[in-house]
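Hey L., structure's done. Input below.
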Amino acid sequence: MAQPSQATDGMDSVPALLQRNATRFADKSAYREKEYGIWQCWTWAEAEKEIEALALGLINLGVNEGDFIAIIGQNRPHFYWAMVAAQSVGAIPVPLYQDAAAPEMAYVMDHCGARFAIVQDQEQVDKLIEVQEGLHQLEHMIYVDPRGLRKYDHHKLHRFIDIQEQGRAAYHEWIEDLKARRGRLTYNSVCVMLYTSGTTGKPKGVVLSNRNIIEASKSSSEFDKLTTDEEVLAYLPMAWVGDFIFSIGQAYWCGFCVNCPESPETMQTDLREIGPTYYFAPPRVFETQLTNVMIRMEDAGRVKKWLFDHFMAHARRVGPSILDGKPVSGMDRLKYALGNLFIYGPLKDTLGLGRVRVGYTAGEAIGPEIFDFYRSLGINLKQLYGQTEASVFITLQPDGEVRSDTVGVPAPGVEIKISDTGEVFYRSAGTFEYYYKNPESTASTKDADGWVATGDAGFFEEGSGHLRIIDRAKDVGKMADGRLFAPKYVENKLKFYPNILEAVVFGNGRNACSAFINIDLTAVGNWAERNNIGYASYQELAGHPSVLETIKAHVEEVNRSLADDPMLSHCQVHRFLVLHKELDADDGEMTRTRKVRRSVISEKFDDLLTALYDGSSEIYTTTEVTYEDGRKGAISATLKIVDAKVAPVAAAHKVAAE
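Output:
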């Protein structure tokens, strides 16, 4: 597949897009940040000056072309400026997850050989100091928030604003060097290096060029008709490719405004204040929002609860059709309009989604019930399928063709093929260049013709041309009788219930499926308070007999739903247990993007998995845990194993499955 050798209009790098925006959209808002309850704003012209000052300061500090600069912090304009400033001087930004433990950061920084790090505050400085003996190449740290750092040794530690001031002071000394470095940037220059989540091993450094980022941003923006008037809320980890595309790639291509919330705790309030027109969230965020809605409705009065249930039932029936412009009777439209006045509109405003014109979810498959709930409210929520290696976009859902069971059609400029084994392959202008220092993985993932193996199993529907993803190829297996086993599909059905935060389903090579379940402490805790049930910990609440009965009812309802599915009716959950701890990235059970590490969980909780299949009614176990400060500890519990009723499968489905 021929790749564009250069961008049109000379826009062949992110810094070049910045220069264009600073002229074309000079007085339009580029960044907003909420601090101490007050929104601050920078125009494109002002942002360009901030980035230029930092870039000059980086040159003054000794940053060379080709250097790697680690970026560690929450979503803040300063860190987006830092990434573009790094690109402007020919360096390569490497954003890291700010909640990663020090050893995780050390691995990435050692692997890429970062000479510089731009971090948020004392917490991140302390993490790097903790592991600095193993980071011999790390020369300088730059921090944004000075609190707590006054008495540190500042020979190699610098304030962000001081580096900018030094850059401004040395303007005439370095400005020609900066212009020369910007001028040497091409479509082939490295734009960013992002590390994969590492579900099956050590994270890999994905090298993305200006071509990858700009072509993906351009085509996806045109697909959804994004304009300079969009508003986005930047709250997802900066180390994740989605945030980079939305908050830098598309923002710089279109020239729209990136809004940074004050903190994770105020995110929902900030979301309501901004009212984004273009919104992205992984399924976990939508699940949490739905849980909070359901909790509030449980506490509502009888009349309000009846109105909500009545109008939501109508919304589920006709809302998606109205959203897609399909025929709906006049009476149904009138009733929906009343529902929008009293229920849907206020609810969307409460969620901060009242102005959303285009919304996306990706990262994991979203439960169809959750997806349909938001679309029934009139929110244009769509699914996309993507990867870090694709600069996000592999498939997109066109307006009017949005469904919960597919991920859409190939994104503009993307080719897709399905192998004989059912694995999905793609190639596009957004396809990554290579894995850093890992030619073996590069060769096994991307062939000489540019085709990339996704690791996902899927197929194209006849007629519609939409792609359906079954599961991760490595997770799709067979039951003992040879029938298909696809755990993610069942897990997403379970996670529709507000009481269930996480589920891990097992069954590969076995006669029946079983599951580990995490309760949602917020939802179940609210139920406990309303019923005057006291508890001292997650563990105590998770083992409460009434909680187990509630989860059992959810599992059995999912089983009845699965019984009607001819492809996966045999994947009903026969037995389950509620884990005594939440699955946690710090304990290695999940990635930083909240993806389950299935093999780690199977090995770590092998005794529990064995008990699910040997007929045990309970099991005593001890598990090592990691506390927030990095200390290790252990928790013990006796877990009840619950048998769930399996729904009968229609004879026609049995024949179809066989």
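The longest helix spans residues 302-323. The CA atoms of residues 385 and 523 lie 29 Å apart.

-- N.
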